[in-house]
Every structure is written in structure tokens, then in C-alpha cells.
């Protein structure tokens, strides 16, 4: 399946990267070693020694450098070999690929495309665990399924009515009516008002209210969602557009989620969720994380089973429904960006 | 390997199919969902939603219908989609394959070929668990081996002398002399008289008797076996043909066995066995099932090892022996029927 | 990867081969059954019955013969079928491949090439567990990696400084200076003097000494290593050549190690190690085996990870260093011998 390369992929949680402890992850089938030095700098290299292809992630941090612990070659953070034990001359081709890497919003972001085009402004505006406005829990799940199937899941919330009837207690509205979908430069925006409702498991209110939820789903596969519960009539007052969050009576939360394609048909799914400080506390955060744990397991069962069916299908074809507008828009965007990347690469090679 | 499609394959035990609880099985590499409705009807569909290929076996029964629990598409038992949530128009191509399915003789039989040719009279006459004449135990085993290797095993009983020397206590006669093999329209018949013998573990007699065993092995892979112990001289009296079972002094039992090719090189083996009411009771049934459990494990060890050897052999060739007459006749029949099916399919496509 | 066929491969420990108990091993992708008869003779055949490819290793020893326990074919130690139950005529092509096999130096050696060229003098002079001069422990490890990667490891001891810094406590000398490497007819010789050193974990001395280690690494993948600790000045006195072991003050040990390519990318690694009787006892042997256990686990972690990286690399290329002289010489020898074998085979086929 197609993925965009000129994009920032989430490689892990920034706070879990201990100094001088190399961390290995495979993204888009490429093994990458990431390490944080005592100086606080973070580096990412191809996880493969030039000598005999041992993984550098089994290596030892030495200052800003990383030493392969098979036969001792020493690598600069830019990928160049600067020491080959017992040998004076180092061949100029002795270097591995270097990846731009940035810690932001509690995530480690790796740029998988042309390093010269790495653009920090393209990092999606996730909400980090240390954000002053939110009280967030977090977690991650490994999938035996392609990242794109998880993206598709997150781009069509009509599945809430069926997959998450138990966990979120989602009602029929997600499947009965399409949400408002708006194309963005690097993704799509999803918006849904549910009028006159007592809400779902995560934001139940004693009397009917208007409930709003919205998320941006951004290249390469990052979901940023918020919403809240508003007085009856708010939906119509703002013409089903974005409400003034200061008028929310409860239920304002934020969730950041990222899907990272790893090797073959596997992916890692990162997520955080929790209430705004004005709408909840650590106890509510823990309740939300409990619901999320159940819901994300429900997704995983369905999506991994879907992957198995696809793998047993000679020529798998999908049949989009009215709810697939977000899926279709996003996947077309991926295809378009990937095509442009290939064209540029061919042009550069001429 | 080649298998016949226009045939009834055993998909499971009828009594284990609970109402409104979809059951998934893969036959000939095709995922199938089977369910029993509150009305008692049994349905079988391709286990793959038209929308995004989620398995319908994770779905929910609603009356006679089955709802995919990913995004809520609702399927009629004939495979047509009758509801796509949030969408008025349903594309006519929104349908999955329907499989004829019948519960009979305690088994669920699925017709894997052209539904228009599904012919109930081709269901092999197995003996169900509720048959008034027999007291039967039952079980099943999953094999990491092709169904055809299990068929081959069941078609050449010379292996009893070696593989089952411990369990059945089979003597040398199975290997020393060929059985009488007769071709049938949809299989082969095996008949063997053992004269003047005290029998095997499952039918030991205190003094020598004539012992008879016979089975039909039928398309696609169903073994139906009976036999008994008769007074000395009976074999010659009936010219080594079929005896009058009313003259049996003991040991009349019946076993039904079915081999179902699942995905790739895996198969499921179903079996029942037990004495005729005139020749035993529940205690004898339990003793026989104990012997069968040991014997079928012996087969599984050998056949799965054989599969491993075959998989490591570049161009595997067999060298048939005198005992392979049943194997050869049956496999030629399979090849012939499969060839005819392909010819008909090509003719129909013109 | 390329391996030499006209060579003796270690198949197992001779003392572990119980009489009349067939033992299965796969070497170079070929399944082999080895058995010891009551007479003490050892035989090795292709582990695959001619009839339906069941493994003979599930068979029964009968005198010098081995009976397939699927349908009872009986095999002579030379591979010929001498009995097919129930059948008078035995086809002349009913035979499996016979492998020359010898128990020596506590190992079972199998000749994988042309049996007519099996030459006992090519068995590497390992030190068996019953050797009167040494007190040896032994063990084995299964690798999820190609044998050749393990050979490469054993041919470049510069890895000791990095991989085994903890276990052997190896200093920088292994990586800082190249060892003396000498080509042999069937391998290479490694020699290293470390002057004025207190040694490594396995031979620590209270005051600085000259330490010597040397090994031959022989086709197909056998390492035979010895060495010892000598008075200061010995290295220079013998011009960094082979010392007189009678002058060793301590630390004389011997280790025999063998790497056997099994199926696909797996290998089995056999090893023994222990002190000369004049330089240690069972307690020292146990201490050495403890160190070896740790060190060989360190190797396994690195080499299996290396294999994984290689498997994920589209066109894996190595970049040899100054320490790769032994690796390069040995692998070129393997390529040359394998090429000659193919040429001879083609000539013989004309």
C-alpha cells in the first residue's frame, strides 16, 4: 500500500527515550535507531552497520556518537563512520542514512523523506502529555495489520455505532447520518453535532444537550480530536459550525492518535486522551482511558480480522459507502502526494 | 492439490451450532460464515463484507439476517445486502456468495460447487450421533497437513500394522495381504475378512473367530466403516463377501469420519465411533473412543511429519505399493471429477 | 549462501546417540536419519521413505535395518528397500540416499558430498570429551541464522573487544591490532600474542605475562583453539610464533567448536571447552563453561539480530575491514571448493 514519505511519522514517546539508550523501530519497512545523548540532542540513523549489517541499536552511545558493538565501528550522528578499529583509512562510502528527528508534543517524529525537505511546520499540532490545559493518559498498541486499515477505521466513524456499541455506548447517529467532512491541505476535517442527546459513555449528561465532536486527520496518519457538550440550541445557533468552547458545559477532552506503518503488515498505534482541566480531573482521565482501552481492543479485533480476510482474498476490492467520504478524500490525497514524490525523485535523478 | 468442488464438505457438528451465533470455517481456502437462526434455519455465506472485507462471522444475527458489525451492512441469507446504514441506494452488485448448507447425520454439510447443482442425494450416508441403533462418541482434530494426505492414510489400511500396533493392536494381516477394493460411483469400497483370529484391541474375542471390516470412502473425503465378529467359517460361507450382520456374535460398530481441507496446508478431521446397541454400551463406546484418541494421535504425528518432509522435497514423487490400489482409484476419481468440473465451467463461460 | 559438500559436518554428540533410537537432523537442507545398532555400527540415510515420503526417523530399528513405521518398508543401511509388506517384487529404484557417517572426537560426522570421495583424513582433529589430556565441558545452541554468519563471527576475533567485553573481559588488543592469519589447505590459522598482560576473564594472572592464543578454522566450519600464559618475554623469544607449551605457566585450554547449517536460515553450534589437566580441574572447567555460556549468548543475540537486518535489506552488501582477512580467505576457499565440486559434478554428468 502507498504511504507518503515526505512526512513526520511518530516513532515513540519522547519521555520514554532514556539518555544513551538506543531505541529501535521500523518505519515503512526501514529499521531506524534513535538515541538521546547526555547533551539532550536526539539523533536517528539507519539501523544497519556498513560493515556486516549488524543493528546499531545494539550499540553503545559515546558522547554524540554511536558505536556498533559487533566490531566497534563508530558513527557520527550524521551517519558517517569516524572510526574503524585497527584501521587508519575510512572509505568515504562508509556511512549510513541519517533521518531528521524531533521530539515535540511528547512524540518522537521522524521524517522519512528527503532530509533536505524536512519541514518542522508540517508536524501535526498534537497535544503533548505536558500540555497545561489537559490531563492526559496515554498508551500504544501493536497491530498485525497495515497502517492504512487503521487510518480507514479512524476516517469513518460510522463504525462507532457497531464496533463500539459496548465501550463508547455510541448511538445510531454515527451510522444514520454522514458527518461534515472538509478537505484540508494535509488531511481532512470531521465535524458532527448531535442535538438533544444525553451523550455517550465518555460524556454522559443527566439532561439532553447538544454535543459536538471534531477531528483533523492529517498526513501521514495523525488524528487530533476535541469536542464538548453545549447547551441545547448551540448547534443551530452556530449553524452546525465550530462552537465557542468557553460555552461548553462539560465534556471537553482532547485525544491525539498516531498510526505508524512498521514492517510488512504491522503498525503501531499511539494515543493519548483526557479532559480539559475545566471539565475534569485525573479520575475522569482514568475513566476515559478505561473506555479507550476497551474500544481500541474492539478496533484491533475487527481490523486484524479484516487484514486476515484481505490476505486470503485473491483480488481484494472495496465498495465505498456514503460514510467513506473521509476515507476516499484522505487516501486520494496520499496517492497524489506519493505520486508527486515519485515524479520529483525521477526528475532529481535525471 | 486437487479437490472436487461439486461435493458436500463437513463444516462442523450440527449440535454445536448455537442459535444466533455465527460460526466461521475455511473450506478449500474460502472463508465461510454459518449461522442458525431462532427459526431453526441454517445459512452459509462468504465470510467477507462487500464494503471493506471485514469478516461477517464477527457479525450479529438479526432475524434471518446477519449484520456486519464493522460499519453495519445487513445481509440476507441469500447474500444480498439489504441495508447500508445512512444510505438509500444499495448497489445491485452488493452481495456475497451464498453456499448451500444442510444439517444431517449430526454434521453441517456445505456444497462448495455450483449452487444450482447442489444435490442432497450426494450427502454421504453417515451415521449421526442420534441414530437409534448406535451408541456413539465423537471428536475432531486439526491437522497441519493437507486433507489429501489424511485421505491417503484412510485409503490404505496397511498402515494399521505399523502406525497403530500399540493403539489398535493390529496384527500383520493388514500389511501382508491386500484388502478387496471395489470402485464406487463416488468413491471406493474396502472389505477385509480376517479368519480365525482373536481380533484387535477394539474387538478382542476369547477364542478365534472370523472378523469382517468394510468401509466406503466417498467424495470429498468421508469414511463410513462397519464390521463385526462372526463364527468361524463365516468368511468362507459368504465367499469373503458381505455377511449377514444378524449373525454377528460381537464387535459390530460404526464409525463416520470426514476430512475437510481448510486453508493452505491445513485440514480438520471429524469422527464418531461406537457400538451397535446389540453389541455394546456406553462403557464400550468410551473404551473405543479412548483407543481412537490414541490411534488418531498416532496418525497425526506421522502425517504432519510426512507433510514436513514433502515441503522440504523439491520435486516430491511417490512410489505406490500393492496396498495403494484404493488410494490410486480414489485420487484418479478426484482428478477426473475435477477435470469435468473445469470443462463444464469453461463451457458455461463461453 | 554457498557451502562445501565434500566435507564432514558435525551432526551431533556421539555419546547421545542411543542404540536403536533413530535421530533426525537436517544438514544443508537435507533431512538425515542417523542410528546406532546394537552391534555398535552407525548408519545415516536420507530421512524420507520412497513410498509416500514419511520420515524414516519415526521408524523402528531391526538389526542393522530401519523400518519405516508408516506402511512398513524396510531399509538396508545402504539405502536399499529390502521389504515392501505384501509385495514380492521390489522396484530397483526403491532406495534412498546413503550418507557416510563416523563417530570420532565425540562427534558424529556426516559426509554431505559424493560418498565415493568420503575421506576420513579430512575429519578435523577436534579434541573429544574423552581425551586424556583435557577436562572438557560441552554444549550446543540452535541459531535462527545462517551458519555462514556464525563462521564469519568465529573468523574475526576483533568482535571480542565489543561483543564479549563483559563475559571474556577482552581488552582492546583484539580490535586494535590484526592477528596473524595464515592460509591452510582446508582453512585458516589465527595466532595472537598479547604481551605483558594480566589476561582476560578466562585466564587472569596476578602479574603481567605473555599470552598466546591460536586456532585453526577448518572446512566446513570447525574451530579448534588452544593457547596459554607464558613468562614475560616468551612472545619475543619465539619471534611471535608457536611457543613450547611445556613452558606455559597457566591457562592452557582447548576448545572445539563446530557450526552446522541446518534448514533454511538455521544452524546448530556445538562446542566443548576445558583446561589441560596440568593447568586446571573440573572447577576451572565449570568456570570456563559459565563464561562460555554467557559469551555464546552474546554472540547469538548479535548474530540473530544481524540476520534479521540482512533479511530486511533488499541488496545486502558488506564492507570488509582490516580484521576481515580470515573471513575473506576462508569464504574464498569455500567458494573455490564449491566451484570445483560443481565443475566435477558437471564433468561426471557428461
From TrEMBL, chains A, B, C:
Pfam families: Rieske (PF00355), VanA_C (PF19112)
Keywords attached to this entry: 2Fe-2S, Iron, Iron-sulfur, Metal-binding, Monooxygenase, Oxidoreductase
Top-level class of the enzyme under EC nomenclature: oxidoreductase
Entry EC no(s): 1.14.13.82
Protein name: Vanillate O-demethylase monooxygenase subunit
InterPro entries cross-referenced by the UniProt entry: Cholesterol_7-desaturase, Rieske_2Fe-2S, Rieske_2Fe-2S_sf, VanA_C_cat
PANTHER family membership: 3-KETOSTEROID-9-ALPHA-MONOOXYGENASE, OXYGENASE COMPONENT, IRON-SULFUR DOMAIN CONTAINING PROTEIN
Domain Rieske: 8-110
The organism of origin for this protein: Sphingobium lignivorans
PROSITE patterns associated with the record: RIESKE
UniProt keyword annotation of Hydrolase present: no
SUPFAM superfamilies assigned to the protein according to its UniProt record, in alphabetical order: Bet v1-like, ISP domain
GO molecular function: vanillate monooxygenase activity
UniProt superkingdom: Bacteria
Amino acid at each position: 500500500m502507498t504511504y507518503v514519505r515526505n512526512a513526520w511519522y511518530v516513532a515513540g514517546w519522547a519521555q520514554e527515550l532514556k539518555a544513551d539508550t538506543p531505541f529501535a523501530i521500523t518505519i515503512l519497512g526501514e529499521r531506524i535507531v534513535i538515541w538521546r545523548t547526555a547533551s539532550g540532542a536526539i539523533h536517528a540513523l539507519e539501523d544497519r552497520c556498513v560493515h556486516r549489517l549488524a543493528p546499531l541499536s545494539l550499540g553503545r552511545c559515546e558522547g554524540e556518537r554511536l558505536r556498533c558493538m559487533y566490531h566497534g565501528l563508530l558513527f557520527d550522528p550524521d551517519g558517517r563512520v569516524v572510526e574503524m578499529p585497527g584501521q587508519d583509512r575510512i572509505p568515504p562510502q562508509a556511512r549510513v542514512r541519517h533521518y531528521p528527528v524531533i521530539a515535540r508534543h511528547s512524540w518522537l517524529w521522524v521524517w522519512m523523506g528527503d532530509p533536505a525537505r524536512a519541514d518542522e511546520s508540517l508536524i501535526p499540532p498534537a497535544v503533548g502529555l505536558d500540555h497545561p490545559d489537559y490531563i492526559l493518559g496515554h498508551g500504544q498498541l501493536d497491530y498485525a495489520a497495515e497502517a492504512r486499515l487503521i487510518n480507514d477505521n479512524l476516517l469513518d466513524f460510522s463504525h462507532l455505532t457497531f464496533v463500539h456499541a459496548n465501550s463508547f455506548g455510541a448511538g445510531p447517529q454515527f451510522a444514520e447520518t454522514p458527518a461534515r467532512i472538509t478537505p484540508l491541505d494535509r488531511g481532512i476535517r470531521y465535524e458532527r453535532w448531535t442535538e438533544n442527546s444525553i451523550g455517550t459513555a465518555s460524556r454522559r449528561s443527566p439532561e439532553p444537550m447538544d454535543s459536538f465532536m471534531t477531528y483533523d486527520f492529517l498526513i501521514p496518519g495523525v488524528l487530533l480530536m476535541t469536542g464538548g457538550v453545549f447547551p441545547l440550541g448551540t448547534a443551530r445557533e452556530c449553524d452546525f459550525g465550530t462552537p465557542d468552547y468557553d460555552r461548553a458545559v462539560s465534556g471537553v477532552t482532547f485525544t491525539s492518535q498516531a498510526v505508524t506503518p512498521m514492517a510488512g503488515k504491522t503498525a503501531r498505534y499511539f494515543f493519548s486522551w483526557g479532559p480539559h482541566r475545566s471539565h475534569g480531573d485525573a479520575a475522569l482521565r482514568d475513566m476515559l482511558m478505561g473506555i479507550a482501552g476497551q474500544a481500541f481492543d474492539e478496533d484491533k479485533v475487527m481490523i486484524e480480522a479484516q487484514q486476515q480476510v484481505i490476505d486470503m482474498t485473491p483480488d481484494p476490492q472495496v465498495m465505498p459507502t456514503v460514510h467513506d467520504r473521509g476515507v476516499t478524500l484522505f487516501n486520494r490525497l496520499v496517492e497524489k502526494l506519493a505520486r508527486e514524490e515519485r515524479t520529483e525523485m525521477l526528475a532529481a535523478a535525471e
